[in-house]
Amino acid sequence: MIMSADHSVDTQFATELFIGGRWRPSSAGTLVNLNPATEEPLADIADGTAADVDDAVRAARGQLDGEWGSWSGIDRGKVLNRIADLIERDGDLLARLEALDIGKPVGQPTILDIPNAANTFRHFAGWADKITVRQFPPPVTSANPPTRTPSASRSASSGRSSPGTPR
């Protein structure tokens, strides 16, 4: 017996890329995303290029060096948990979209993929306030090794004696 189910989804898709907090067109325009099981068109989606990826990386680095990087781990964890909440809230829609996009039965994304996506965000949200990185300038040292030490030891000590010198 062959069974089929209508997993169609009536929703609007963005045809632009979200980079640096704003929607913008892809450098290459759009492409048609096909359902691999039926080869029917699903949607026109942004056709990202290497230049678009470079722009996204620059924007992400700017946030890491700027506002996002200045937030506490607690605040970052709240954002990641909010994303997980939204994934769970819209899980049925996301599962149907995933099934259509990948061409697999809707049960798999419903049971595995979508809950795992939410759990991944929750996992990293849980770590956000546990790992703290602080950067300190290298200490200023005064190295006066005994005169009978090997010259390699003396040069290693004196090479680190000024601030900003890599160790």
TrEMBL record:
Superkingdom of origin: Bacteria
Xref: PANTHER family: ALDEHYDE DEHYDROGENASE-RELATED (PTHR11699)
Spans annotated as Disordered: 136-167
EC number: 1.2.1.-, 1.2.1.5
Database matches in Gene3D superfamilies: Aldehyde Dehydrogenase, Chain A, domain 1
Gene from which this protein is expressed: puuC_1
GO MF annotation, one: aldehyde dehydrogenase [NAD(P)+] activity
Annotated source species: Rhodococcus wratislaviensis
Keywords: Oxidoreductase
Aldehyde dehydrogenase domain boundaries: 23-138
InterPro entries (UniProt xref): Ald_DH/histidinol_DH, Ald_DH_N, Aldehyde_DH_dom
Segments of skewed composition (Low complexity): 145-167
Pfam families in the record: Aldedh (PF00171)
Protein name: Aldehyde dehydrogenase
